[in-house]
Design brief:
With 168 residues, the chain is mostly helical. It has one domain. It contains 10 helices and no strands. The termini are far apart. 26% of the residues are buried.
């Protein structure tokens, strides 16, 4: 059942990514705006990510990413360093685009989720891992390290080690 929901979300994310990139008007970025880009392809192409960050992530894309990730609205407010009230205001506005600093964080959390799903296979196991103190991360919960890019890098490195069977 959960995989059906994830699959539907991925389909919506694919459409949203294509729409976002077609609307991007950044000079110097060469990519085929006619080609349909999937969400998975987007997350592996740093140039596309840079274009999206600089354009600003629209709330519609964030809303789908928020549904795809294991993070609560409070988690998102903490990661983005904005209030939950602001997030609710953005939702009410049809045309809100996040600033590049927030757009980057949204994409970072999408990357963590993608890697976590590859490692653990489902969102519930990922959520449990994120909320459990981890010896390799100084007995901190991985979710507590995600607020800044250095912490996110530590979490991603730990996910890679787990994926390769290297347990500390």
């Amino acid at each position: 059942m959960a995989s059906v929901v994830i699959s539907k979300l991925e389909s919506k994310l694919d459409k949203e990514v294509s729409s976002l990139l077609k609307k991007s008007r950044l000079k110097g970025f060469s990519f085929d705006k006619e080609k349909e880009i999937t969400y998975a392809e987007f997350l592996t192409d740093k140039m596309l990510i840079i274009a999206a960050i600089r354009t600003g992530i629209p709330y519609s894309f964030f809303d789908l990413v928020q549904d795809y990730t294991p993070f609560s609205e409070n988690d998102w407010a903490n990661f983005l360093d904005i209030s939950t009230k602001s997030l609710q205001r953005y939702k009410a506005s049809d045309s809100h685009h996040f600033k590049p600093i927030h757009s980057e964080k949204i994409i970072e959390m999408a990357e963590v989720t993608k890697m976590g799903l590859e490692v653990f296979g489902n969102i519930e196991k990922l959520k449990l891992w994120l909320n459990t103190p981890n010896y390799a991360l100084g007995n901190l919960k991985p979710i507590d390290l995600l607020k800044d890019s250095y912490g996110k890098d530590l979490v991603m490195s730990e996910l890679v080690r787990i994926n390769h069977g290297i347990l500390v």
